[in-house]
Every structure is written in C-alpha cells, then in structure tokens.
C-alpha cells in the first residue's frame, strides 16, 4: 500500500501528510491507462505579480525560461517512466468520473484488473519531512520552484507548469470531493505530481509527507512552518489589517521561507496567503486549533471503521449525518486551520492518501480493492479518473494498490 498524505499545493506546495502504519509485503503487478481528451479554456491576460525579493525566488509568468530538458530514462528504472499517452486534443468536456452503471456497486474483494501481470522491480520509500536530510529537503524545494518556472502545457503561455496542477484540481473539485472518488483521484494526482517533477525537474527523491499527528498539541509550531529561505515552507501570513486583504481571504501574505510572496495565478491572481486560526464551532475549549479532529484518539476512531463508506466519511468530513448535521474530518479541519488560500478548495489542492493506505493494510485481503458508494453517489472499480489532459484517463481499480506499477512505493514509518 501507499502512505497517505495531504498535498497542500498553495499553503504547502505539494507537501504530503501522513499518519503512519506498518506496510505488509504483497505481490505486485502492472496497471494501464488510456489518454484523456479535453477542450482547454482560453488563457486570460496575466496581471503583474510581484516576484519574491531574492535570486532564489520564483519568477512570474512573464519571465518563464525555456523548459528543462531532462531525460526520464537517465535516472529512473522502466517502471518509473511516465505512462504513455497522446497529447490532449480539443474536444468536448469530459466528466471527471463516469460510472458504467448508476446502480452498480462492487464487492469488497473484487480482484485487480486482468492487465495486472507485472511486478515492481523495487519499492521506493517516501519519508516524513522531519526524516529528510537538509540536502533532500533542498532538492525537493528546488524541484517545486522548477515547476513554477516551466511553461504550462495546459493553459497557455501566461501560466506555469505548476499552475496546471492547481487548475486541474480547482476545476475538478466539485466532482471529486464528498463522494467515493475522493481517495483514488487524489492518490493518482499526487503520484503524477511526483513523476512530473522527477521527469521535468530532475527531482532525485520521492515526495515527502507531513505527519501532522506529531504536531497535534500545537500545530503552529510544526517544523513545516520554518522561515528558512532554502528549506522552509514559511510561517503565518503578514500584512494583516485594513486594505491588506484584496482577495477577501481573511489572511495575510506569506513573506518568509522558500515560498515567500509566491504568486498564485489560478483561479485568481494573488500571492500565497495564510492565517492560522479557527472559529467556532470548530474551535472547542481544551483542543488547540481543532486538534480533536486529527489527534491520535480521533485517528484511531477513523481507522476502526470497517467499511470504505464509513471510513471516507469520517476522514474527509462534511458529510451529512443522520440528524442532518455535518461534521469535519482531518481533511477539512486542516484546510480551516491554515486559513488564507487553504479553506477554499478552488485555491488549494490537497490529498489524504496515507490514511487510506494505513486503513487498507490493516485488512488487505478485504480492503485493497474495496470501493463502495458514499454520500449518495454510486461506485464502481471501472469508474474513470479524469485529469483534464494532465494525465491519461485511468480506472479506479488501477490505483488501489501502490505496491503495483506504476506506483511502486510505500511510506517510511517510525
């Protein structure tokens, strides 16, 4: 299985989130996918965005250099290469998910795709941010900045390669949240991000994850929020006050760390913002910034769920309860706490894949391919995951096991 994580594209540019678990060894095999077709929107004009004040800053779209030329085969084995697919071509808009039958559900132990007939030559290991060396952290940050210098392949010359990810998540958000697709869609989304920074930015490692359960007592003191200009993701926002919030996000611009004054191009033009806070009723006495939703006790409750539907509802949050109320989960509370760009899903892509992986490994025979209706939406392992031309269309069944190609990775646990 894989490590589960949340990828904060804006607040934490593609840093993952994990909870930790033991990963059993199992047989591995290959998955296949077909290319996607999409009609891309016209690229809007690019307003002036101030750049970060140092030579290590990220250029705006007006100063994008030529794309890096990196040979995928020069540093990685065959199972690590990008899945083949035709370039996105103009055509009609495709739904993110397509169920073959509106009433179809699946067995908890439905077998993998018949095309699964290969094994991983090796299993790569993803580490928690604190377990990385200084050099590994710097390499990751450098690769993210590289993605912000390359030109977009989806949105035209006014955008960056980094914006392609933000665009796809933003435009897909209503079709991938509060429904069964939430977990498999984000699993492949984060994997393709890792693959693309390896292939296009020569990233040498695997994407890290953030185990926020280690920081539940005071999440604002997590080493994630370091102001180090080389390896820090920056602290809380600055410039709070009248006239300092033109985007009405109730937050301030992040002015330190490696992503100081990081320019955001989609869905609006601004700079990266944060505001560490939590308002009632999410904030409860005795629980700092909603820690009751991601502390060890609540994570045990989530992992104790015996079926996919109950598990995903407690993990993601915002599902309507029998009494008509809605409750948050670790996924929604992290959005709310970070503030700024994070609370609005149109401004931030995120992923929780590790928690799902931990849950799967606790009963692999029954849970590896368990994918059930959730929130009133049907589910089939033949549902298609669509990434609007960023990646080939892929069936849900082909992303359920990360110890099989093309994934071939697991998370390192303490």
UniProtKB/TrEMBL annotation:
Low complexity biased stretches: 43-63
Protein name from the UniProt record: Tyrosinase copper-binding domain-containing protein
Cited SUPFAM superfamilies: Di-copper centre-containing domain
Domain of life: Eukaryota
PROSITE patterns xrefs: TYROSINASE_1
Record key words, sorted: Copper, Metal-binding, Signal
Domain Tyrosinase copper-binding per the UniProt entry, residue ranges: 177-194
Feature: compositional bias, Polar residues: 70-80, 93-121
Segments for region (Disordered): 25-121
Lineage per the UniProt record: Eukaryota, Fungi, Dikarya, Basidiomycota, Pucciniomycotina
Residues spanning the signal sequence: 1-22
Species in which this protein is naturally found: Puccinia striiformis
Keyword Protease: no
GO molecular function: metal ion binding; oxidoreductase activity
